[in-house]
Design goal:
By secondary structure, this protein is of the alpha+beta class. Helices cover about 40% and strands about 20% of the residues. A four-stranded antiparallel β-sheet has the order 2-3-1-4, sandwiched between helices. It is globular, with a radius of gyration of 14 Å. The chain binds 2'-deoxyadenosine-5'-diphosphate and magnesium ion. The site of 2'-deoxyadenosine-5'-diphosphate (DAT) has 9 residues, from helix 4.
Length: about 140
């Protein structure tokens, strides 16, 4: 069965620290199939669009500055129940509260610099995947 998709980004802090390979290994060993992937540096404007649902929140400025501070790796992943299972797999938003063995627990620094993104719904996954990748790049 093909499964469903989710979208992920290895965030600038984790990329800069050299955790990309380890994180991608965990993702593949977790049974996620990489449907599309690229390294890219976001502009602050692009980060602002990506996180527009958080516009007006106190952490929006910090978040968009951080996400445009260096390269990221963006990817579309496929697995059965991809969105919910990947959220479990990466752990809670705050690495200090994330379960043992999760990516955020292992590689996150703090609430803002939490190593990795995971979509929060199927609708978000589609929106986020198409923000970074064309149809042909995902198939
Ligand atoms: P998640 O990434 O778990 O879906 P979110 O969508 O609520 O979390 O927030 C997006 C990102 O913004 C999150 O990964 C880290 C940052 N963030 C969230 N809440 C924050 C806060 N209170 N202070 C600083 N950064 C925060
Ligand atoms: Mg979110």
């Amino acid at each position: 069965m093909a499964g469903t998709i989710t979208f992920t980004m290895i965030k600038p802090s984790a990329f800069a620290a050299g955790f990309t390979g380890k994180i991608l290994s965990m993702i593949e060993e977790g049974g996620y199939k990489i449907k599309a992937m690229k390294k890219i540096r976001l502009t602050k404007e692009m980060a602002g669009h990506f996180y527009e649902m958080h516009l007006g929140k106190p952490f929006y400025e910090e978040l968009t500055s951080f996400m445009s501070s260096g390269p990221i790796v963006a990817a579309v992943l496929e697995k059965e129940n991809a969105v919910d299972s990947f959220r479990q797999f990466i752990g809670a938003t705050d690495p200090a509260k994330a379960a043992e063995g999760t990516i955020r627990k292992l590689y996150g620094k703090n609430l803002g610099e939490n190593a990795i993104h995971g979509s929060d719904s199927d609708e978000s996954a589609e929106r986020e995947a198409s923000f970074f990748f064309s149809f042909t790049e995902q198939n």
